[in-house]
Amino acid sequence: MAMAVAEARLRQDKVKKFEDFVDRRLKPDLVNAIAQRDNLFQQQKTFLDLKKNIENLEKNGVTSMRSMVNLGSEVYMQAEVPDTRHIFVDIGLGFHVEFTWQEALQFISVREA
Questions:
Q1: Which residues does 43 contact at the CB level (< 8 Å), separation at least 6?
Q2: Comparing C-alpha atoms, which of 81, 49, 76 is closest to residue 65?
Q3: Which DSSP symbol is given to 109?
Q4: Which has the closest alpha carbon to 43: 90, 98, 105?
Q5: Nearest of 26, 6, 9, 8 to residue 18 by alpha carbon
Q6: Are 20 and 26 a contacting pair, CB within 8 Å?
Q7: Which residues of the chain have pLDDT under 50?
Q8: Of 1, 22, 79, 100, which one is least surrounded by beta carbons within 10 A?
Q9: pLDDT given at position 49
Q10: How far is it, in rounded angstroms, from Cα 7 to Cα 12?
Q11: Residue 77, strand partner residues
């Protein structure tokens, strides 16, 4: 009987160690992985939206445009873009590069791969 109690206690201790490992290590790692995945999906969506916008500009032959720009805190201002053939793309780490439409589409296809 004492042997069965000792085995049950040993089993409970092992289960407790595994639960602690899951709570301390695996759950935070999972939360971090999910956050990174969501960030990657957001970047992919941004590039896909940019690609669609560039294709629409090319298709419609738009060389200038007017738009409402969010200045922050939902304050908008009307902006005019005199030449849409060159755009600035955020390439990461706070850097923006001026691209033509074709260069931007090539960059997007590389980033998507």
A1: 111
A2: 81
A3: H
A4: 90
A5: 26
A6: no
A7: none
A8: 1
A9: 97
A10: 9
A11: 69
Output the pTM of the full model. Answer: 0.73
Per residue, what are the HEC states of 10-65? Answer: HHHHHHHHHHHHHHHHHHHHHHHHHHHHHHHHHHHHHHHHHHHHHHHHHHHCCCCE
Q: pLDDT of 3-31, one tens digit each?
A: 888 899 999 999 999 999 999 999 999 99
Q: Which residues pair with 64 in a beta bridge?
A: none
Residue type, 88: F
AA identity, residue 31? V
Q: Which of 53, 49, 35, 58 is nearest to 112 (CA)?
A: 49
User: 48-113: what CATH class?
Assistant: mainly alpha
Helices 101-112 and 27-60, axial angle in degrees (round to 10): 150
Q: Of 64, 63, 52, which is closest to residue 105 (Cα–Cα)?
A: 52
Place of tokens 């990174």: 36
End-to-end CA distance of the chain: 63
